[in-house]
Amino acid sequence: MPRNLDLTALRSFVTVAEAGGVTRAAGVMNLTQSAVSMQLKRLEEMLGLTLLDRSARTIGLTPAGEQLLSYARRMLSVNDEIFSRMTAQQFEGEVTLGVPHDIIYPVIPTILQRFAAEYPRVRVQLVSSFTRTLKDQFRRGEADIILTTEDDCDSGGRTLATVPLVWVGAPGGQAWRQRPLRLAYEERCIFRQGVQRRLDEAGIPWEMAVETNSSRTIEATVSADLAVHSMLAGTEPRHFEQIAHGGALPDLRHVNINMYVSDPRDGPMVPDMAAMILSAYQARQPVAHLVRA
After folding, report:
1. Mean pLDDT throughout 203-208?
2. Per-residue pLDDT, 276
3. Last residue of a domain, one of 51, 70, 86
4. What is the DSSP string of 140-180?
5. pLDDT band at 93 (very low <50, low <70, confident <90, very high)
6. What is the Cα–Cα distance from 221 to 229, expressed in whole angstroms?
7. Looking at the structure, do residues 167 and 70 belong to the same domain, yes or no?
8. What does the pLDDT read at residue 287?
9. Mean pLDDT across the stretch 138-159?
10. What is the DSSP letter of 5?
11. Rounded to 5 degrees, what are φ and ψ at 143?
């Protein structure tokens, strides 16, 4: 007699594989860590296979787990497609989400994917801009949810995490050793003046290497080792690395990642997206100091 795979357990397995661990997966799925672990154990017992390599500090996949991951993704994709097409689609419309470009990764793509599966007929308008601009748009009612990077949190907002600002440069770069120190920041970057002030306090001369509001220009300048920049720890792209300056550069401040949510107007879409974002940040405890309600 054929046996049926548990789709709930498969979804937990895929989420653990993609999130890199049980704790993070539990946060993404709004489940307890023990519940996710039990589902994984049940799946391994059903198949008679070891799917996860638990011998190292971080969980990896065994060869059997790698093979199952490919099948599981396809099964869940078909399941989600059937569910979205065959059930009544009562929610339609658009949700506008505003996020500063430097914190889009790694959280926001996962949120967009998960939200699209639950609300396939709701369009998400992702707006990437500077914190000041996003707050102005939110006040005018032009955004449903915004994330910001700020020193404080205004009334009505919620701090998701407090993250250190770190110096970044080209991998193996030497620009941080130069004096005056060459900086690359967008003209409207909220971190720019604070970094300049910390350098002045430390007695380190500096100069701006480029004047632009293009993030791509900043990335090109820094990755070419022509200047240094600062970013929230854990958000730096692969072509940047944190600078191990050994105290040659001043320590920078910690920054709040805040979320502001408008009053819901058209059903649960906006609150549900906000809950997904909160869960995703709660799952990233090793990267950021999380502020709990």
Report:
1. 97
2. 92
3. 86
4. TT--SEEEEEESS--TTEEEEEEEEEEEEESTT--GGG-SS
5. confident
6. 10
7. no
8. 43
9. 94
10. -
11. -140, 140
Type of residue numbered 283: A
* Helices 33-47, 22-29: inter-axial angle, 10-degree rounding: 110
Token pair in block for residue 4 = 């049926």
The closest alpha carbon to 162, from 250, 39, 288, belongs to 288
Please state at what angle helix 269-282 crosses helix 107-118, rounded to 10 degrees: 140
* Same domain assignment for residues 54 and 196: no
Query: CA–CA separation, 69 vs 15, rounded Å?
Result: 10
Rounded to whole angstroms, how far apart are CA atoms 63 and 58? 16
Alpha-carbon span 82 to 79, nearest angstrom:
5
Q: Say if residue 71 is in the same domain as residue 145.
A: no
Give the pLDDT mean for 213-242: 92
Q: Let me know if residue 152 belongs to a domain.
A: yes
Q: Structural domain tally of the chain? A: 2
| CATH number of the domain that residue 19 is part of | 1.10.10.10
Of 3-12, 27-36, 252-261, the range with the lowest mean pLDDT is 27-36
Range of the domain at 55: 7-86
- Which of 66, 86, 106 delimits the end of a domain? 86
Q: Is residue 214 part of a domain?
A: yes
Amino acid at the residue 198: R
Q: Supply the pTM of this predicted model.
A: 0.67
